[in-house]
């Protein structure tokens, strides 16, 4: 379809015309830039926070099953439903976030209707929605570590920080590599979060347009399936390249 032009029911061969249009469209490059910013910000921050929370639950908290269920609930909840809730949280007039900021003397922030804040708001939302899956997978990885390692380390007087750096973290490298791969692919395909948070729009003045939203817009709104599919192929290649580089880096770290 990326080499065809016209509507879905009336297509004709167009060669590389669709690719030329996509690669000369500044909106597409803005969408790619926003997507890359989202991916390379949300993924590492969500992974670090998720690792900290998982470690605290695993080591310090009693009734672990209760907290695992608590943290897993957002993962099985509709992103659209969560987005509606977050729209109220981020509301510039009566949102709870601005209310809390006002208590510490910080003026209200226009989270949803400010061109300069759209991506920041989306990134915060993305980090929150990524935590549940990361925490559950990291807890599973922590359980697979032989407890004898910890017993021996504590016998020799190792502190918590040393145990984490020398035993826990190296043992979690395969789990972290898996999460990085899955999360990067998911982040480059971000769409639902944008749709939910900005009520079906890619932010004010399209300031939070992402690659998949660009594809959706060209396919369903503009009625240009050929251009949409060309953008899809390009996005696939970008994801493939980023995933390959990430896997090579993690392989070196594992060695």
UniProtKB/TrEMBL annotation:
One of its GO terms (biological process) is transmembrane transport. Pfam families: BPD_transp_1 (PF00528). Keywords: Cell membrane, Membrane, Transmembrane, Transmembrane helix, Transport. The keyword Transport applies. It is a multi-pass membrane protein. The keyword Oxidoreductase does not apply. PANTHER family: ABC TRANSPORTER PERMEASE PROTEIN, INNER MEMBRANE ABC TRANSPORTER PERMEASE PROTEIN YCJO. Belongs to the binding-protein-dependent transport system permease family. This is ABC transporter permease. It comes from Enterococcus saigonensis.
